[in-house]
Amino acid sequence: MTQPMTPTTAAMLAIGDEILSGRTKDRNIGHLATVLTMAGIDLKEVRIIGDDPHLIADTLNTLRRSHDFIFTSGGIGPTHDDVTAEAVAAAFSLPLIEHPEAVARLEAYYAGRGLPFTDARRRMTRTPEGASLIDNPVSMAPGFRIDNVFVFAGVPAVFEAMLGNALPQLPAGQTIASVSVECPFGEGDIGDPLAAIQKLHPGVAIGSYPRFDGQGYSTQIVLRSRDNDKLVAATAAVEALMAAMSGR
What is the mean pLDDT of the chain? Predict the structure, then answer.
């Protein structure tokens, strides 16, 4: 009998005082969740923290010991408050260096644009020693990977480009299939029988999402599983419940 594949798990660390203050509205979490779901990787946890290198390092160490992959966003730009690279180096107890390949890329990039390669711009070449670069076709300054941690920029267009370039480095997971069942009843009406169905179908995640159209409540029931047979069986049970409650 073939054993089911153990799901690959991931966590995200979104970094930036501007997110916590509300000045910047994060768009990267949703994009990462969508991409990882399509790749069959379970995003299990997301944390948002400020530009504190000690907190970043401590949080990163906690996450990377609990999940297969960690993705960070933000804090690798040219200014003094971009402290993610040094925090990642501290988390791994590695020296922070100017990556030679990153230096060569950015030096050529700014020379081609007739701009000086300032100390601020050189900050974007810093990585923990031994890190591999992740290409950035948008603005050239690369992200990097060290062990199971992927470090990306926070600008959404750059984050998305870096994630696209990192995807080939991730294992192909077993994708999750989902089915939606429309329910004309509110969650209060279906809560108990739906919980009973969930107990009978442990291989399927069953979620309920309430709706209100101004006149009454309804619910969308979403079933998700990596096992198609279990998904079909649970869906049939939910549809039978809807039929019974509707008197059909």
Answer: 92
Distance, CA of 223 to CA of 192 (rounded, Å): 16
Is residue 149 a contact partner of residue 64, using CB atoms and an 8 Å limit? yes
Output the CA torsion sign for 105, 109, 111, 116. Answer: negative
In degrees rounded to 5, what are phi and psi of residue 133? Answer: -80, 150
Question: Which amino acid would we find at residue 246?
Answer: S
- Can you tell me the mean pLDDT for 46-69? 96
**Share in percent of the chain as helix, strand, coil (round to 5):** 40, 25, 35
Q: Are 128 and 134 in contact (CB under 8 A)?
A: no
Q: Which of 163, 226, 162, 142 is nearest to 32 (CA)?
A: 163
As a whole number, mean pLDDT of residues 54-64 equals 97
DSSP symbol at 27: -
Closest to 210 in 3D by CA, of 223, 195, 222: 222
For 101, the enclosing helix (H) or strand (E) is helix 100-112
pLDDT band at 130 (very low <50, low <70, confident <90, very high): very high
Own/partner long-range contacts of 154-162 (Cβ < 8 Å, ≥24 apart)? 154/14, 154/15, 154/16, 154/24, 154/28, 154/73, 154/74, 154/75, 154/76, 154/77, 156/27, 156/28, 156/31, 159/28, 159/31, 159/73, 160/28, 160/31, 161/135, 161/136, 161/137, 162/134, 162/135, 162/136
Which helix (H) or strand (E) segment is 180 a member of?
strand 177-183
- Give 152-187 pLDDT, tens digit per residue: 999 999 999 999 999 999 987 777 888 999 999 888
What is the predicted pLDDT for the residue at 111? 96
Structure token pair of residue 160: 């998305």
Beta-sheet pairing, 41-49 with 8-15: parallel
